[in-house]
Amino acid sequence: MSSITRTIVIPYSPRKEQLFLHKNLNRYNVIVTHRRLGKTTFALNHLIRCAVTNTFRESRYFYICPFRTQAKTVAWSILKYYAGKIPGIKINESELYVEFPHNNSRITLFGADNYTGLRGTYFDGGCLDEFADIDPILFEEVLQPALIDRKGYVIFTGTPHGMNHFYDLYKTALANPNDEWFQKMFKASETNIIDKEELAKLKFTMSEEQYAQEFECDFSAANQGAYYSKEIIQLRGEGRVNSVP
């Protein structure tokens, strides 16, 4: 019996930053990006490639945002656009998943706001997007055990939001340059994806801290809403404001 090999082409032309990521991912991947880099498009297309080429039947992949409504708004149309080019694809609008006909692999969108429902599942890989705004227990207690059986991978991605668990994870990846860990930071001043005129407008309308955080991936920049952080630090240094116990 002769076999037929089918070539599937989807309309995805990765930027050089996205292509670099596709070629270099390991098992644990920490990717810090400025806004508008295209991290969601990259992550979803990476999941599609893995799901299509996986030789296991019924492989499972996740894409998780802080909120399910956010996942639906940000990622669902992107996933359907690219995966929908594959003949026979099954799209489930209510459960937010796509399933591939030849091996029953599935990519599902979830929200971290109801992560207890993921307990007891298994996964071959996935992406935790905007990880700085996701409870780290989701990975530590729920997803990490779910990845064990098939030695699945995970992509942690997002923009900094203070020196929290995302920062700690990035430092861990920096300290472990081996065949399991990968890290990369993309700053707007280095990628040139956003043109200089737009960056200048952003600098004019945003605070220094906001711009440093959102476009230069500065973990130490003040959190949004901490408008007087610099002044408080200065006053504490002068002994005019007591530290909070």
Structure notes:
- It is a single chain.
- This protein has 245 residues and is an alpha/beta fold.
- It is 38% helix and 17% strand.
- The chain has two domains: 162 residues, Rossmann fold (3-Layer(aba) Sandwich), CATH 3.40.50.300; 51 residues, no CATH class.
- The protein has an eight-stranded mixed beta sheet with strand order 3-4-5-2-6-7-1-8, sandwiched between helices.
- The longest helix is centred in the first third of the chain and has 16 residues.
- The chain starts with 15 loop residues before the first helix and ends in an 8-residue tail after the last helix.
Order of helices and strands: HEHEHEEEEHEHEHHHH
Given the structure, what is the number of helices? 9
**So, CATH architecture of the largest domain?**
3-Layer(aba) Sandwich
Question: Strand order within the widest sheet?
Answer: 3-4-5-2-6-7-1-8
Shape: globular
Portion of residues in beta strands equals 15-25%
What about the largest sheet? Answer: 8 strands, mixed
- Which whole number gives the mean pLDDT? 89
Helical fraction: 25-40%
Radius of gyration: 20 Å
- CATH class group of the largest domain: Alpha Beta
Oligomer: single chain
CATH superfamily of the largest domain: P-loop containing nucleotide triphosphate hydrolases
Q: How many DSSP E strands?
A: 8
Look at the helices and sheets and give the structural class.
alpha/beta
